[in-house]
Design a protein that fits this description.
The complex is a heterodimer of chains A (275) and B (250).
Chain A: H1 24-46, E1 51-52, E2 55-56, H2 102-110, H3 112-121, H4 152-172, E3 175-176, E4 179-180, H5 184-200, H6 204-212, H7 221-237, H8 240-262
Antiparallel strand pairs in A: 1-2, 3-4
Helix pairs in contact in A: 1-3, 1-8, 2-4, 4-5, 5-8, 6-7
Chain B: E1 2-12, E2 15-25, H1 31-41, E3 61-64, E4 67-70, E5 85-88, E6 95-97, E7 100-101, H2 104-111, H3 131-140, H4 148-152, H5 154-157, H6 168-178, H7 188-192, H8 205-209, H9 216-232, H10 235-246
Parallel strand pairs in B: 1-5
Antiparallel strand pairs in B: 1-2, 3-4, 3-5, 6-7
Helix pairs in contact in B: 3-6, 6-9
The chains are: A mainly alpha (275), B alpha+beta (250).
Chain lengths: 275, 250
């Protein structure tokens, strides 16, 4: 009994009297996020097989520059800024994804839900409720080094632009070479944009900016409108965690689906009878 | 009548140990009932703080099988019959005796928050506000000050930063005042500096243990963090405020 602290509370990393399966959440989160990071990094470095038929992978949208010699690359005329630039460092692959993933990556990195997730499962501060955290010299929370988290709303502004771009991509996927139609890929892109929209518009920063910053919702007509938007954002915000995971998994699946079709390993069911 | 096995912390700030008790229990009993039975029949000097036995006074906060809970709201039937129920005092505050801790620090934090400062009454001498405006703060008013959120908050519980963070309970208290439609006080500078909203890393344990199911993090702390961001860290908002000031806006 000599090693028991006051009140029976033992100090130290991971120490707890809890008997439930508190480790399951952080372990699953660690595995889920790690798997996505590994896949997204691998996919970004490929620089190929991101475009097939009317489908464009969300990891590569919008295409700023195109390397036309890459397999499964978008046509040059599809790129906003043309062919691949000469100034690009030779040691890096010519992957349009490098210009894109930084934006959704920053949005998810600074997202209030993901902060909870990785503070628990990666940083272990703490790994679970009433479980001893990793030892730190002096805890400073989200001050000092982590002050950058406060710029989440700027990542949100970019994320909102991406929602519209991804809906535009889904809209384009209803037509192939000028022929209207529909494929499984079209639906995959549409679901992807919708899940990302539900995740983005349920963001805590969005909820604050559209109305949460007000103290009085009934003071004038504009406040009333903002209250209405705030209530809708609140509905999505209450489901922020499921939308965070669903949108994360689906965006990875969308890239994989398009990649496999582009590589000829999967056939897309569609009304165009192949690409 | 069935028998349940309990391990209860007995001791004070100088030390102590877990004592084991076999307690005869009946259907519908909660942990507090069992502790009262121990107190009545086996350990007359067992110290427990309790009052309403209805989950509304916030007195019987303790840790049951490692989780901060109200003993009066925790049914024995929630645990398998052969399960040992371990009862400890809350960790974040100094132990007085057995299951009773000194939570006076919390009341000191409350004094640091600028009190309700309503705008002047209307011409008819009344304060008027709409239900839509006060729904948010009504959620925060459900708080029973059990301090389970304070106990589970790792900043107070494990990181020993009571010097820098007032804790979730007082973030909620500040939010209930700052979001009030009649209130005019500016608590944002105090939230950033003295009350330390930036110390919270939003791991949501406070929300998980709240017996009143207040969404402490999502509806209280994060909105306060966003208000601090608008004031101190968002260059666009800072610029807009300056422009408003230049052109005579409010």
């Amino acid at each position: 009994m000599a090693d028991i602290g006051i009140g029976g509370h033992q100090p130290g990393f991971g120490s707890t009297v809890r008997t439930d399966s508190w480790k399951r959440g952080p372990v699953l989160t660690f595995l889920g996020l790690s798997a996505f990071i590994v896949y997204a990094t691998w996919a970004a470095f490929q620089g190929a097989h991101y475009y097939v038929g009317p489908y464009l992978s969300p990891f590569y949208s919008p295409v700023l520059f195109v390397e036309p010699s890459a397999l499964g690359a978008a046509p040059v005329e599809h790129a906003w800024l043309g062919a691949w630039p000469a100034w690009w460092p030779a040691f890096l692959p010519h992957s349009p994804s490098f210009f894109i993933l930084i934006f959704p990556g920053a949005f998810r990195l600074t997202c209030y839900y993901y902060r909870k997730a990785y503070y628990r499962s990666f940083a272990t501060t703490p790994p679970g409720c009433a479980v001893g955290p990793r030892a730190q010299k002096k805890y400073h929370g989200e001050t000092r080094l982590l002050l950058f988290q406060n710029l989440h709303r700027y990542a949100l502004y970019f994320a909102i632009i991406f929602v519209f771009i991804l809906y535009y991509d889904a809209f384009l996927a209803f037509s192939y070479h000028g022929v209207p139609g529909l494929g499984v890929g079209t639906l995959v892109l549409l679901v992807n944009a919708t899940l990302l929209a539900c995740y983005t518009f349920g963001c805590h920063s969005f909820r604050h900016l559209v109305g949460g910053r007000l103290d009085c919702f009934s003071c004038n007509a504009a406040c009333g409108v903002q209250h209405g938007i705030w209530k809708k954002a609140t509905f999505l915000n209450e489901r922020h965690m499921p939308f965070a995971w669903l949108s994360l998994c689906w965006v990875g699946f969308t890239d994989l689906y398009i990649r496999l079709i582009s590589m000829g390993l999967l056939t897309d069911l569609n009304t165009w009878e192949g690409f | 009548m069935a028998e349940r096995h309990f391990k209860v912390w007995r001791g004070d700030a100088g030390g102590g140990q877990f004592e084991e008790y076999e307690v005869e229990v009946e259907d519908g009993m909660v942990v507090l009932d069992a502790l009262h039975r121990i107190q009545a029949h086996q350990a007359n000097d067992l110290a427990i703080r309790w009052n309403c036995k209805a989950g509304k006074c916030g007195s019987c906060s303790m840790e049951i099988n490692g989780k901060p809970k109200l003993a009066c709201m925790n049914r024995l039937s929630d645990y398998p019959e052969d399960f040992t129920i371990v009862v400890q005092p809350i960790k974040a505050f100094p132990l007085i005796k057995d299951l009773v801790t000194d939570v006076a620090w919390n009341y000191e934090q409350n004094k640091r928050i600028e009190p309700f400062t309503p705008r002047p009454r209307g011409a008819d001498g009344e304060h008027r506000m709409m239900q839509d405006d006060i729904e948010r703060v009504q959620e925060f008013r459900k708080c029973i000050e059990c301090f389970l959120c304070q106990d589970v908050c790792h900043v107070l519980r494990d990181q020993d930063r009571k010097d820098a963070f007032a804790g979730p309970r007082f973030m909620i208290r500040a939010a209930s005042l700052d979001m009030h439609p009649l209130d005019t006080a500016d608590r944002i500078p105090a939230l950033k500096e003295e009350l330390g909203v930036g110390m919270c890393n939003i791991t949501k344990c406070c929300t998980e243990v709240c017996p009143e199911h207040i969404k402490i993090t999502d509806n209280g702390i994060i909105p306060l963090k966003e208000r601090v961001v608008s004031r101190y860290y968002d260059p666009l908002m800072i610029l807009l405020r300056k422009l408003k000031g230049l052109f005579g806006g409010t």
